[in-house]
Amino acid sequence: MTTNDTPSTQPTHRSRFRQFRDLFNKGPVILGYIVAFHVLAVLAFTQPFHWHYLPVMALFYVWMGLSTGLYLHRYLAHRSFEMAMPLQFLFAFGSALTFMRSPFWWAGQHRVHHQKSDQPGDVHSPRDGFWHAYVGWVLKSGDRTMEFVRAGHGIKQTRFTRVLGASDVQILLNTALCSGLYALWGPGGALWCLYVPLVLSLNMTWCVNTFCHIVGYRNFDTPDNSRNSFLLGILTFGEGFHNNHHAKPQLARAGMRWFEFDFIAWLIGGFERLGWAWDVRWSLPTREQSALDQAG
Ligand SMILES: [Zn+2]
Ligand SMILES: [Zn+2]
């Protein structure tokens, strides 16, 4: 029995609810939904494909890819530009649909990747094994949460990014979207339109993390093993020019040469012209630039 001066040690409804929500960030649960998405994407091939699915699939693939590359990566993790609130909401929503977990967790882990790139303590270096770099780190990163949160300090949080960044909310959104597509076009519509682009988008991000530290060409002699991949550059709207990015992570662009098509940088430039983005870092201060030119 508790009294007023002996605080209760019984868990409250609120703490029980928080524990329940934390379950969605545990490695086995994350593994469960990653496997489930892949199974659902493969099951799409048991359903007839209709051409009217294609624009919806393309829309989701582009939205998810930009939400990772433009928003989580260049906007939040590197602060390489500022953008209007409706765009932040649009891409925060897209990153929630892509199951990128909390934007602040994502940005923090990515900053740690840059700080320790291909060194001990890197989040996803292929030097620690291919599958660890590809997806294993996602499942094992629970005990580094505080380190990632610290690395993500200074990142502006808003109420909607906090809500949309919760894994259980992301599962709910996914389920709601899946139900809507199912109601509209049946099981084929849900599987083709949602899970195929989702799985492609997740794997593209993992491919950049892994292959762009193994194979490809280098424009800059960075201390890590980062590489540029033309193919991944195209498939990820510019994110595959990863050696360029490691050399100049502060910049809003990753494409440096004429054939390095950086769709994300073009889009940021478009937003800037419309007044929807500002303080865009297109170049480094002269002294940093000349040091890099000598190194490259
Ligand atoms: Zn990297
Ligand atoms: Zn980066």
Shape: globular
**End-to-end distance:** 71 Å
Largest sheet: 2 strands, antiparallel
Query: Number of folding domains?
Result: 1
Radius of gyration from CA coordinates:
20 Å
Q: Helical percent range?
A: 55-70%
**What is the N-to-C succession of helices and strands?**
HHHEHHHHHHHHHEH
Structural category is mainly alpha
Q: Provide the list of bound ligands, each named once.
A: zinc ion
Say how many strands there are.
2
Count up the helices. Answer: 13
| Order of strands in the sheet with most strands | 1-2
What is the residue-mean pLDDT, rounded to a whole number? 89
Low-pLDDT residue intervals, each spanning 5 or more residues: none
- β-strand percent reads under 5%
Q: Summed up, what is this model?
A:
The protein has one domain (56-295). The chain has 13 helices and two strands, in the order αααβαααααααααβα. It has helices at residues 13-22, 27-43, 53-77, 85-97, 103-115, 130-140, 145-151, 159-164, 167-211, 230-235, 242-247, 263-274, 286-295, and strands at 82-83, 277-278.
Report on this model:
The protein is mainly α and 296 residues long. It has helices at 13-22, 27-43, 53-77, 85-97, 103-115, 130-140, 145-151, 159-164, 167-211, 230-235, 242-247, 263-274, 286-295, and strands spanning 82-83, 277-278. The termini are far apart. Residues 113, 117, 213, 226, 242, 246 line the site of one zinc ion.
Characteristic key phrases:
mainly alpha; two-stranded antiparallel ribbon; globular; 296 residues
Secondary structure elements and pairings:
Elements (H helix, E strand, L loop, with lengths): L12 H10 L4 H17 L9 H25 L4 E2 L1 H13 L5 H13 L14 H11 L4 H7 L7 H6 L2 H45 L18 H6 L6 H6 L15 H12 L2 E2 L7 H10 L1
Antiparallel strand pairs: 1-2
The chain binds zinc ion (ZN) (2 copies).
The site of one zinc ion has 7 residues, from helix 3 and helix 5.
